[in-house]
Design a protein that fits this description.
six-stranded mixed beta sheet, alpha/beta, 24% strand, Nucleotidyltransferase, domain 5, 2 domains
């Protein structure tokens, strides 16, 4: 079985195609294709309120390319989800209709709660019996989840993300609300460790030289952030080999991660390198096998 997930974020659009394999009763999602394109809907929407015609035309071409990939890989089913920028855009309905008319693809614009629930499907596989604060920072929104004994007991989504923060499209009130929510839940649930998801934290983890399964400390994150902050944009591109759309948002994103850890008084973070697209693949699989409890390996 092959499944595909297309995640339309505020910074980038990602398409992942995975083969679903069964190994000794465990389900494995083996990646066979992955394409990421930095369309940056958030720059349009968070500044002007709508997606520009130029980006709409690029978006149609991008989805046509993904449609061809899905066809040549003989994908059995796929899911397309759009998050913060699309749900905020005043012309989202027009964009979705133009996609239907041009290529017949349906896009599901999901809210923050649904986004968090999809990510939850894969995060659980990496947790033990500690009490965790999950921090997922995207381009336009940040989702927080509280896990106690591998069960999600609280969740909240804030319209705050790396692009919004970079361009100053946030407020002191928003930061205060995030801090209040985290401090109250940290005290109530006795949190002991963070889990970080999102491309920027994955990159910080990589720069720190960490390997999968081992946590990164808050001090190590701060050291990587200080190193990046000391570099020019060109040095970030050449020395760290960051993509241009990562080089400018990684520091605004890191401020959100570090602030959340400080508010919760957490010193370590797991970085499992999974995200919304992986949760979407799980959700697709469950359509066909609702009776099975999925314990997966993602490669």
């Amino acid at each position: 079985m092959k499944l595909a997930a297309i995640d339309i974020g505020s910074n980038a659009v990602r398409c992942q195609i995975s083969s679903v394999l069964n190994q000794n009763g465990n389900v494995i999602f083996k990646r066979v294709e992955y394409v990421r394109y930095a369309i940056r809907f958030g720059e349009d929407v968070f500044s002007n309120g709508y997606i520009s015609e130029h980006k709409i035309q690029k978006f149609i071409k991008l989805l046509q390319a993904f449609q061809l990939l899905i066809d040549v890989h003989d994908v059995d089913d796929y899911m397309i989800c759009a998050t913060s920028a699309m749900r905020t855009s005043t012309n989202a309905a027009e964009v979705l209709q133009r996609i239907r008319d041009a290529i017949g693809m349906e896009i599901d614009v999901i809210d923050g709660v649904t986004e968090a629930n999809l990510i939850n499907k894969v995060i659980l596989n990496f947790l033990d019996d500690r009490n965790y604060l999950h921090i997922d920072v995207g381009g336009g929104s940040t989702e927080f989840n509280i896990y106690v004994n591998r069960e999600k007991v609280a969740s909240e989504s804030f319209e705050q993300g790396s692009i919004r923060h970079m361009h100053g499209h946030d407020s002191e009130e928003l930061w205060n609300n995030m801090q209040r929510w985290i401090t109250e839940n940290a005290r109530k649930h006795h949190l002991t460790r963070a889990v970080g998801t999102g491309g920027n934290m994955n990159k910080i983890f990589e720069i720190a030289g960490k390997t999968g399964g081992k946590p990164i400390t808050r001090k190590q994150i701060e050291e990587v952030v200080a190193r990046i902050a000391s570099m020019t944009m060109e040095q970030r591109l050449t020395d760290l080999m960051l993509n241009p759309d990562r080089a400018d948002v990684i520091l605004p994103a890191s401020e959100i991660y570090l602030s959340a850890m400080k508010w919760a008084k957490l010193e370590t973070m797991l970085v499992p390198a999974v995200g919304l697209k992986d949760g979407m693949l799980h959700a697709l699989y469950e359509r066909y096998h609702p009776e099975r409890f999925v314990i997966d390996k993602i490669s």
